[in-house]
């Protein structure tokens, strides 16, 4: 999957905005939005929030977890634990990038947040590699991956799945039998 | 990496070869040391080292994998196939000690695939060969992964130089995952770029294209 | 009330004449499409076609687009509707495209499965996809003949496509999220010194395991590939 497709999925998450215009309810195929009143917070999907923000029609309220103190705690915990700690949002990385790139003026301490999220990401990716290696070397058949996000899975997906496939075929060499001695004749 | 063909056929790895895989076609041309178990009349021209008309029984020569597989039969012995050095006991000990020290490109470059293919030919060593192939792969996995995940925008030739073809393929999957993420992170994914095909096309003159 | 409102607040009427037992809201329909999209993207084999979902989504889109035709330029709501349409359209075409890609990759096997399908069994391919697969097969054969096979000795002029084109590998691993709790899923051992064991798949949990083990759960909708 392309990272931009993961980002596309992240854009469906809702975020609070404070509009500076008024508009009645919008009946979208995917659900109702609004009504919009100047100064009154309202939930919208991220794709719409970013669009309105770009047209200077709203202010974006950063999600609660997008806060230096909270993220610092998360980073500590992530570094301390060997397992993956619960993430504040299944799309924390994508939302951080989207909101910071398009609405950094609405987010206090944007640069610090960017660094913190990147630190958390790096720690988790290092863990992911460690678990991938042990999954391969132990020749496991099943792994539980709670708390891993789609973007994280996505960075290692092709590599890990291709490797597992190769390993599967090399392992099936160990079972003498079926196809052995019979040459495939095209 | 930028000139990837549309839907390339992956190598078959194990006991199977994929008919339309370029890697497997190249693999099937790897030469194996064999010994003839009967005489081949009037085929002496295939054996460059002698002038005789026939290939005599007991001649040692090299044949490509596809031909060795075709001639090999368990019941009627026509040829016997010798194990290439890298799969023999001596090398297996090296692999079992530390698979990471071996230059699999030099020893291969189809170490895993050819090794799997060798299992077609009966030998008491087969189980050990299969086991060594698997353990070598597992032993080298971490290294393949780390190098493929840490090498962004660098010259990767030194990293891949010692990899077997299969590992190179995996290295590329790893790199594409990493590159995809990093260019997304930098926001390059949102910029439209001209296809390399279009760029190259422009360089050609119209007279070159016309018949 | 803006004039756009009267046009849009009946967004669900396309489904109302559908007197079938499972009435879906348009939002649920879009969710179904996205599910099918991700499942198709990540499953090693071609999944059963969801042409009902595709058709309903198309209907919704045409309905909405027809409404938008009548709205005057610069309407604030219309632009939001257009954005949503573009997003749905993206998922729809990506879904259909990933199916076509798999058909191209596995065409002999896809057609074989379609041939051996029992009378009442649901079809793997939509009528359009079936036509595409047949044509792709014929074109590949013609091409191979033209560039190589006709120059071969007569006994080597045929290629068995079923053997020449690799089958989908159902033993591939997949990532999945559980939507409905499942008990006693058998995990087969990978090596001789491991034993088989069972796992329970808790709702909301995520796993990495062989596609073959959970393939039925993908088609029943109990798990979502991620």
Please provide a written account of the structure.
The complex is a heterotrimer of chains A (about 190), B (about 210) and C (about 230). Chain A has helices spanning about 5-10, 45-55, 70-80, 90-105, 110-135, 150-170, and strands at about 15-20, 25-30, 30-35, 40-45, 60, 140-145. Chain A has about 190 residues and is α+β, with helices and mostly antiparallel strands. Chain A has a three-stranded antiparallel beta sheet with strand order 4-1-5. Chain A has a two-stranded antiparallel sheet with strand order 2-3. The longest helix of chain A is centred in the middle third of the chain and has 28 residues, at about 110-135. Chain A is elongated, with a radius of gyration of 22 Å. Chain A starts with a helix and ends in a 14-residue tail after the last helix. The relative contact order of chain A is 0.12. Chain B is about 45% helix and about 5% strand. Chain B is globular and about 70 Å long. Chain C has about 230 residues and is mainly alpha-helical. Chain C is about 55% helix and about 10% strand. Chain C is built from eight helices and five strands, in the order αααααααββββαβ. Chain C starts with a helix and ends with a strand. The model of chain C is unreliable at about 1-20 (pLDDT under 50). Classes of the chains: A alpha+beta (about 190), B mainly alpha (about 210), C mainly alpha (about 230). Chains in contact: A-B, A-C, B-C. Chains A and C meet through β2, α2, β6 and α6 of A and α3, α4, α5, β1 and β4 of C. Chain B: Belongs to the GINS3/PSF3 family. Chain B: Component of the GINS complex. Chain B: This is DNA replication complex GINS protein PSF3. Chain B: One of its GO terms (biological process) is mitotic DNA replication initiation. Chain B: Its main location: nucleus.
At the first level of CATH, the class of the largest domain in chain B is Mainly Alpha
Averaged pLDDT of chain B, please?
Answer: 83
DSSP strand tally of chain C: 5
Task: State the major sheet of chain C.
Answer: 3 strands, antiparallel
By CATH, the topology of the largest domain in chain C is Methane Monooxygenase Hydroxylase, Chain G, domain 1
Q: Give the domain tally of chain B.
A: 2
How much helix, percentage-wise, in residues of chain C? Answer: 40-55%
Assign the CATH architecture of the largest domain in chain B: Up-down Bundle
Which strand-content bin applies to the residues of chain C?
A: 5-15%
Query: How big a fraction of the residues of chain B is strand?
Result: 5-15%
Give the helix level of chain B as a range of percent: 40-55%
Question: What spatial form of chain C do the alpha-carbon principal axes imply?
Answer: flat
Largest sheet of chain B: 3 strands, antiparallel
Oligomer: heterotrimer
Q: Taking Cα atoms only, what radius of gyration of chain B do you get, to the nearest Å? A: 22 Å
Which structural class should the secondary elements of chain B be placed in? Answer: mainly alpha
End-to-end separation of chain C in angstroms reads 42 Å
Low-confidence stretches of chain B: none
Subunit structure (chain A): Component of the GINS complex.
Organism (chain A): Seriola dumerili (Greater amberjack)
Protein name (chain A): DNA replication complex GINS protein PSF2
InterPro entries (chain A): GINS_A (IPR021151), GINS_bundle-like_dom_sf (IPR036224), GINS_Psf2 (IPR007257), PSF2_N (IPR056784)
């Amino acid at each position: 999957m392309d990272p931009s497709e993961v980002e596309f999925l992240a854009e469906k998450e809702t975020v609070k905005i404070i509009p500076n215009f008024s508009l009645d309810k919008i009946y979208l195929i995917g659900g109702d939005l609004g009504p919009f009143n100047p100064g009154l917070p309202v939930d919208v999907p991220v794709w719409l929030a970013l669009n309105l923000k770009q047209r200077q029609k709203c202010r974006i309220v950063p999600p609660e977890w997008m806060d230096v103190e909270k993220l610092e705690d998360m980073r500590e915990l992530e570094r301390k634990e060997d397992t993956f700690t619960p993430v504040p949002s299944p799309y924390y990385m994508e939302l951080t990038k989207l909101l910071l790139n398009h609405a950094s003026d609405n987010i206090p301490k944007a640069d610090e947040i960017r660094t913190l999220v990147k630190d958390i990401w790096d720690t988790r990716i290092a863990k992911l590699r460690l678990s991938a290696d042990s999954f391969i070397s132990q020749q496991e058949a099943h792994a539980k991956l709670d708390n891993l996000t789609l973007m994280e899975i996505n960075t290692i997906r092709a590599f890990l799945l291709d490797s597992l496939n190769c390993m599967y075929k090399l392992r099936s060499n160990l079972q003498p039998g079926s196809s052995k001695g019979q040459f495939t004749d095209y | 990496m930028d000139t990837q063909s549309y839907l390339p056929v992956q190598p078959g790895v194990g006991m199977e070869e994929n008919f339309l895989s370029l890697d497997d076609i190249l693999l099937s041309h790897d030469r194996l040391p064999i010994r003839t178990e009967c005489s081949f009349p009037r085929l002496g021209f295939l054996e460059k080292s002698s002038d005789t008309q026939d290939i005599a029984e007991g001649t040692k020569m090299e044949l490509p994998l596809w031909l060795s597989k075709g001639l090999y039969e368990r019941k009627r012995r026509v040829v016997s196939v010798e194990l290439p050095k890298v799969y023999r006991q001596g090398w297996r000990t090296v692999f079992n000690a530390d698979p990471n020290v071996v230059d699999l490109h030099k020893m291969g470059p189809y170490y895993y695939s050819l090794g799997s293919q060798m299992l077609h030919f009966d030998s008491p060593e087969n189980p050990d060969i299969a086991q060594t192939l698997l353990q070598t792969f597992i032993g080298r996995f971490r290294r393949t992964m780390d190098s493929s995940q840490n090498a962004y925008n660098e010259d990767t030739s030194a990293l891949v130089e010692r990899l077997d073809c299969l590992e190179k393929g995996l290295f590329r999957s790893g790199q594409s995952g990493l590159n995809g993420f990093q260019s997304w992170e930098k926001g390059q994914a949102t910029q439209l770029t001209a296809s390399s095909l279009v760029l190259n096309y422009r360089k050609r003159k119209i007279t070159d294209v016309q018949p | 009330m803006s004039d756009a409102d009267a046009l849009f607040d009946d967004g669900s009427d396309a489904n109302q004449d559908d007197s079938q037992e499972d009435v879906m809201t348009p939002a649920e329909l879009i969710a179904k499409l996205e599910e099918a999209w991700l499942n198709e993207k990540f499953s090693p084999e071609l999944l059963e076609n969801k042409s009902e979902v595709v058709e309903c989504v198309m209907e919704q889109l045409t309905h909405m687009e027809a409404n938008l035709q009548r709205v005057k330029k610069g309407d604030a709501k219309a632009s939001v509707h257009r954005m949503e349409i573009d997003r749905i359209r993206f998922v729809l075409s990506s879904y259909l495209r990933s199916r076509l890609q798999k058909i191209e990759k596995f065409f002999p096997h896809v057609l074989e499965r379609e041939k051996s399908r029992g009378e009442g069994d649901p079809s793997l391919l939509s009528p359009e996809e079936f036509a595409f697969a047949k044509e792709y097969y014929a074109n590949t054969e013609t091409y191979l003949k033209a560039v190589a096979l006709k120059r071969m000795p007569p006994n080597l002029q045929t290629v068995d496509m079923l053997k020449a084109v690799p089958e989908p590998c159902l033993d591939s691993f997949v990532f999945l999220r559980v939507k409905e709790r499942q008990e006693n899923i058998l995990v087969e051992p990978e090596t001789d010194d491991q034993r088989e064991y069972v796992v329970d798949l808790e709702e909301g949990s995520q796993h990495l395991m062989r596609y073959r083990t959970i393939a039925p759960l993908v088609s029943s909708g109990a798990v979502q590939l991620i």
